[in-house]
Amino acid sequence: MTMERTDIAFEVNDAAVSVSVPPVRRLSQVLRDELRLTGTKVGCDAGDCGACTVLVDGNPVCACLVPAALVSGASVTTVEGLANGRLSALQASFLEHGAAQCGICTPGLLVAATALLQRNPTPSEAETQDALGGVLCRCTGYRKIVAAVMHASQHMDGFDRRLPEVGRAVGASPIRLDGVPKVTGDEKFGGDSFPHDALSVLVVRSPYYHAGFSFGDLDAWAKAHPGIAGVFTAADIPGRNCFGVIGPFADQPALAEGFARLRGEAVALVAGEREAILDLDLTDFPIAWTELPHVLQPREAKADGALLIHRHRPANLLTSGYVEHGDPDGALAAAAVTVSGAIETSFVEHAYIEPEAGFAYMDGDTLVIVACTQAPYMDRDDTAKVLGLPVEKVRIVPTATGGGFGSKLDVSLQPLIGLVAMKTGRPAALAYTRNESMMSTTKRHPAEMEATIGADSEGRVTGMIFEGDFNTGAYASWGPTVANRVPVHASGPYQTPNYRATGRAIHTNGPIAGAFRGFGVPQATIMQETLYDALAGKLGMDRLDFRLKNCLRNGCETVTGQRLESGVGISECLERLQQHWARALGDAEAFNAINTASKRGVGVASCWYGCGNTSLPNPSTIKVGVSASGDVVLHQGAVDIGQGSNTVISQICADALGLPLDKFRLKSADTAITPDAGKTSASRQTFVTGKAAEKAGRALREKILRFANVSDQATIALDGASISIREVDATRRIDLRTLKIDADGLVFVAEETYDPPTLPLDAKGQGKPYAVYGYGAQIAELEVDLKLGTVKLLKITAAHDVGKAINPVLVEGQIEGGIAQGIGMALMEEYIPGRTENLHDYLIPTIGDVPPVEHILVEVPDPEGPFGAKGLGEHVLIPTAPAILNAIRHATGVLVTKVPATPSRILAAIREKEARR
Amino acid sequence: MLSAPIDELSPIADVRGSAEYREHAAREIVVRAVCAATSLGEGKVAA
Question: Is the dihedral of CA A563, A758, A331, A446 positive or negative?
Fold first, then answer.
């Protein structure tokens, strides 16, 4: 039944507006759908995330919780109203501080901060945190946001783009090239540009972990509901109803056929006019469910006689990874000291603030999908397969992506909206609700791990054995990658001459576990680094000294037998932490000497992480050219999900080419116009695509120099529509408009591909899985309330070897954001299907949860990386959780072995220890 | 400070913590609030 409409008049950004909508329609919907003010974002529709924050008569509110009728006669300010012809001081400050990464939360933060600054132009840190406490950010770790707000008053005269001189782009920190739309509200994310005439799509999903289902009379139901254009099921899928990110393991239907393997699995689509879908009640949808037995824990799933979630996978084992080096059993038997332990971790939700969203339409016989993603070419291939189209008849146009962290590598809504567009001939639009985003998309694998590590009497690690079961949920997704990456990394960045590690991905009826910043390595590192503390304790060694004694160095062999010839920076990271470690230990000791109710602790942990695919091809291609009008056009297909690839890849290319950054014009990812730069994952874009950009820049320079018949000592410069080439005292000027133009409008062009040199792993996991590794180490300082079990983080000190910091401000942003996610993993994040499918039961760190972060950028160049650079996107999260757990143990004497270490778990562990006395 | 029944205190158990933990925490927080209000220092009371 359609709701009555009423006319509501109010002001938006000082302009009078009137809308005719149901009085209870959310203000956020009115702003976005009726007034097309899409700068106001929707992250949860429940007042949890704050992305939709607007000012109503000067006061910040969540627009998703405000009925339209309530603003009748009021004055509303959105992000679009903050700039008055030029950026506000706050917007400029956000850009200069690097406070916006993906940008989806930025409008809400800017609006909330504007209200604060209007009453207090120079707020303290605590005042800023109080004012912004209701707005969640998943990328930045909040520290740069706090700084931007506190120092906004210093940016009254506009902003400095910090554009570097020619040849000095690498190592400079220009503001992100795609930054301005993120602070004005102009950036278009997945749900921000739906066509007016698009059909809206609803997804019918399984309410059960495992259930059979059958449909009733779908046609009759559709006819009985005005405005419904069609209902689509698996029977309507024209291609192969099976997708997956790793071809040989592909096992997931776009729409389930006859039974569902997980809660939230899509079984049918309802497409209709927008207003009809908004009011649609699906309780009478004709589907009959038969609930079936299910398993949620790996130990149940691998037990004899357990139901098989996929018939062709015995014991519900998706796959396993294995690495063996030397004689681990003999080494442990002969070790002077051994320690053993077990750690269990939980599902972790990516919790990007932008739920999956996009629209599809037919352009002739080509299906075009405009949606947020991390992997446009993979989306294209899977969508084409499901919909029975040749790949060249599917075009993926990525929108800005409001956070991804791994989950937007898998297709989600692409085949669904594609199917509706193909079947109806009309554009089809879909934005997942927060609930369905959390139910149906991938998670970090929960892990059940055991390990033993031994050392000789001198404190040298002699052997390690690791076993881990990873709950990969109902479908394969990236489970094979986790199972294979974990055994390679479970030693940590330490010399471990005798080693055996097994990682198993085991199916359950739980959420699909896939890629999430680290592919299982953060979990395994908790196991290894907490045992390292125990081992140091048994040996009577300082914990940092113990790590320094054992860390990898140039010339060392890894557990896969790979000799690391150069570029190993973990010792430098640990050495740079030494003075901080001594100071922190002293501070904790002094505090603990006079306090009994709370105790302070200090923990340290390291990381290493191979950049790119594990022993698999992983190419990126970059095209760059000079246009007839004198611009450098960079076809930059590495999707920027907030980490900064648009800027970093351009900086690398600029210095390789020898032209200034301000001449660069970006053509971002689009499978119809940009070459494949691979997926944004595995910390590969700076290294792999950056290397391709370096090669392409050098190749373009070479072409220009050859055209001018000069040596490689010449310099080039663009001046309007001409290019000048100077060698010694001679200068030649070429009018670009006189040269032959290609189909892209380019007069000089180069395209280069780079694929990291790796070697396959043999049956014992021996080989060269990665061409480049990055390294890091972090110290956590915290205070534990011994009666409540609560943890107050005091400081994180992070030393990361990035080879070469291409853009130091962006590197800092990655470090702070990774640490925030590590804090969540350590202390609060636990996704439980059916119970935490929203952002009020599932907690992520807020602005008050992230302590000061001191970053130490270590630059040990890797000869393989562009200008020596290594990846860092995942590295920065890995040490945080184990450093925190080690600090909790230092403070309390107890190790929490079930992560997250919630207050109740910490208190229970303290009480258990006291009971043992 | 003596422990006494608080009938109004009947917390739920959920994924964030058990009812037992919540009751303990609530008592501890009340004790601290009372101590703060009466200016009693740390170490002079027990929850």
Answer: positive
Alpha carbon distance A65, A24 (integer Å): 10
Cα B39 to its chain centre, rounded Å, is 17
* Shortest alpha-carbon distance between residue A597 and chain B (Å): 8
Contact A101, A817 (CB under 8 A): yes
Q: Can you tell me whether residue A39 is helix, strand or coil?
A: coil
- Higher-confidence position of A526 and B9: A526
**Token pair for B16:** 């964030």
Q: Is A594 on the interface with B (CB under 8 A)?
A: no
Q: Is the Cβ–Cβ distance between A25 and A72 less than 8 Å? A: no
Are residues B17 and A832, on separate chains, in Cβ contact within 8 Å? no
Tokens describing residue A653: 């290319």
Q: Is the dihedral of CA A99, A102, A104, A107 positive or negative?
A: positive
| Distance (Å) of CA A521 to CA A239, A467, A720, A832 | 36, 13, 50, 21
Q: Are A63 and A54 in contact (CB under 8 A)?
A: yes
CA–CA distance, A345 with A900 (Å, rounded to integer) = 7
What is the average per-residue pLDDT within A886-890? 98
Residue A766: Cβ within 10 Å count: 18
A166 closest CA partner among A622, A704, A642, A697: A697
Which 3 state secondary structure label does DSSP give A495? coil
The DSSP secondary-structure symbol of A889 reads H
Residue A691 neighbours by CB distance under 10 Å: 27
Q: Are strands A287-291 and A461-473 parallel, antiparallel or unpaired?
A: unpaired
Interface TM-score (ipTM) > 0.85:
yes
- Residue numbers in B near A903 (CB within 8 A): 17, 21, 25
pLDDT tens digits, residue range A115-169? 999 999 999 999 999 999 999 999 999 999 999 999 999 988 888 999 999 999 9
> φ, ψ for residue A88 (rounded to 5)?
-70, 165
Interface contact B17-A843, CB threshold 8 A: no
Q: Which residue in A has a C-alpha nearest to residue B41's C-alpha? A: A597
Strand order, beta sheet including A791-801:
A598-610, A773-785, A791-801, A853-858
Helix H segments across A662-774? 690-708
Burial class (CB in 10 A: 0-12, 13-18, 19+), A148: buried
Percent of chain A topping pLDDT 70: 100
DSSP-derived 3-state class of residue B14: strand
pLDDT of residue B44 exceeding 70: no
CA distance A392 to A397: 13
pLDDT in tens, A17-61: 999 999 999 999 999 999 999 999 999 999 999 999 999 999 999
User: Is the CB of residue A841 less than 8 Å away from at least one CB of chain B?
Assistant: yes
Taking an 8 Å cut-off on Cβ atoms, the answer to whether A788 and B29 are in contact is yes
Cβ–Cβ contact B43 with A under 8 A: yes
